[in-house]
Fold this sequence. Notes:
The protein has helices at residues 20-23, 26-42, 65-70, 135-148, 153-156, 165-180; strands spanning 46-48, 58-63, 77-89, 94-101, 104-114, 116-122, 128-134, 163-164. With 184 residues, the chain is an alpha+beta fold. It has one domain (9-183): Peptide deformylase (Peptide Deformylase, Alpha-Beta Complex). Strands 1-2-3-6-7 form a five-stranded antiparallel beta sheet, with helices on both faces. Strand 4 (94-101) and strand 5 form a beta hairpin.
Amino acid sequence: MRITTVGDPVLRERAAEVSLEELRTPELQRLIDELIETRRQAGGAGLAASQVSVLKRIAVVEVDDATRRRYPYKPPFPLTVIVNPVLEPLSGETLLINEGCLSVPGLRGDVERYARVLVQYFDRNGARREVVVDGLTAGTFQHEVDHLDGVLFLDRADPRSLSTWEQFERHHMARFLERIGPYT
């Protein structure tokens, strides 16, 4: 699928809740398969349906070996399909994560995220699930749920921290890795 990029109004809209009946349709199951494949081809840690111009509250998160080649500092995380996710911070502790986004190609910036969150969601089969995630993984889930709410990391980033990938690697990566070390 084609990933929608910043400037397209669809990225600023809140995605619609998905009924369990709708979730079981072949169309939505095919969408989930396509989200998974698109995320894997793009090498991101997650992908929300709104990033492919589908305003449904569905996202996928996965940090596999291919993803870790791009982001070696991210801890592995199994493929997780989240439908109608709800996040609950489990403490006031936050961490500053340097994020990028497949919908904002080539740009990164520092975003303050909760360090530990409870994620409640339905899986692709309609089963109610919950998972507690920490550190960079918690940041990934918050990033994807932001997409479902029409929020981009650019809205939360310190504008002074914005940089290209090249400049991030050259000037900021070492300090970022030192800062997030305990959370990986």
